[in-house]
Amino acid sequence: MNWTGLALGLWMLVAIGVGFWWVIKVEYHLGAQVWPWVLALGVALAVASYFVPSFEAAAAVGVLAGSVIWGSTELPAQAERVRRGLFPANPRRKEGR
Predict the structure, then answer these.
(1) What does the DSSP assignment read for 28-70?
(2) Is the torsion defined by CA of 23, 26, 28, 30 positive or negative?
(3) Phi, psi (deg, nearest 5) at residue 95
(4) Cβ contact 52:61 at 8 Å
(5) Angle of helix 55-83 relative to helix 4-29, nearest 10 degrees?
(6) DSSP for 9-22, written as a single string
(7) Mean pLDDT of 45-52
(8) Inter-residue contact 71 to 23 (CB < 8 Å)
(9) Which residues contact 41 (CB under 8 A, 6 or more apart)?
(10) 73-91 average pLDDT score
(11) Distances in Å between the alpha carbon of 15 and those of 11, 33, 82, 89?
(12) 10 Å Cβ neighbour count for 65?
C-alpha cells in the first residue's frame, strides 16, 4: 500500500493552515510591504524542490513553496482586511513603514 498521497494531502492541509496564521502575524509585525521577500522565499523553495532527490520530500517542499507563494499574494489582502477593521492593526507600527 502506498501512503504517499495521503501523507502529502495531510502535509498540504497543515501548510495551508499554518499559512493563514503566518500571513496574519507577518502583516501585523512587518506589514504587507514585505510581500516581495515572501514571494522570493516561495520561489526559492520551488527551485530547491527540483534538487531534492526523494520524490516525497521534493513534493513536500513544492507544496510548502506553493503555500508560501500564495501567502505572499495574501499579504496585501490582509492589509486591506486590517484597514477595514476585520483584524487588529499593530499600534506600534507606523502606517508608512
Answers:
(1) HHT-GGGHHHHHHHHHHHHHHHTT-SSHHHHHHHHHHHHHHHH
(2) negative
(3) -65, -35
(4) yes
(5) 30
(6) HHHHHHHHHHHHHH
(7) 98
(8) yes
(9) 68, 72
(10) 95
(11) 6, 22, 23, 25
(12) 20
Contacts by 22-29, CB closer than 8 A, 24 or more apart? 22/71, 23/71, 23/74, 23/75, 23/78, 24/78, 24/87, 26/71, 26/75, 27/75, 27/78, 27/79, 27/82, 27/87, 28/82, 28/87, 28/88, 28/89, 28/90, 28/93, 29/90, 29/93
Amino acid, single-letter form, for residue 88: P
The pLDDT assigned to 11 comes to: 97
Beta carbons of 65 and 43 less than 8 angstroms apart: yes
- pLDDT band per the 50, 70, 90 thresholds, residue 75: very high
Cα–Cα dist 96/39, whole Å = 21
* CA angle 37–43–47, rounded 5-degree value: 140
Is 1's pLDDT higher than 90?
A: no
